[in-house]
Amino acid sequence: MAEMKTSDVRAMSPDQMDDAVLNLKKERFNLRFQRATGQLENTSRLREARRDIARIKTIAAQKRDGKSK
């Protein structure tokens, strides 16, 4: 899965954002598990997943506060 773009996240509904965060958290858990067992090949994906979660949560908060651009 590639890094999410801000424009893609802004087009999501709140439910879609919640689903995306949940899926990214599951992916991140699996990636951490792979790293611990020495099976992780793409180590940069951990960082991307963490940042994608933060990006979605930030945009969701902006939408809730009515500060969407």
Brief sketch in words of this structure:
Helix 2 packs antiparallel against helix 3 (44-65).
Mean pLDDT comes to 93
Helix count equals 3
Strand content: under 5%
Radius of gyration: 13 Å
Assembly classification: single chain
- From the N-terminal CA to the C-terminal CA, the straight-line distance is 26 Å
Shape: elongated
Q: Give me the strand/helix succession.
A: HHH
Structure classification: mainly alpha
Work out the helicity level.
over 70%
Find the count of extended strands (DSSP E, 2+ residues): 0
Low-confidence stretches: none
Q: Describe the main β-sheet briefly.
A: none
Can you offer a commentary on this structure?
72% of the residues lie in helices and 0% in strands. The two termini are 26 Å apart. With 69 residues, the protein is mostly helical.
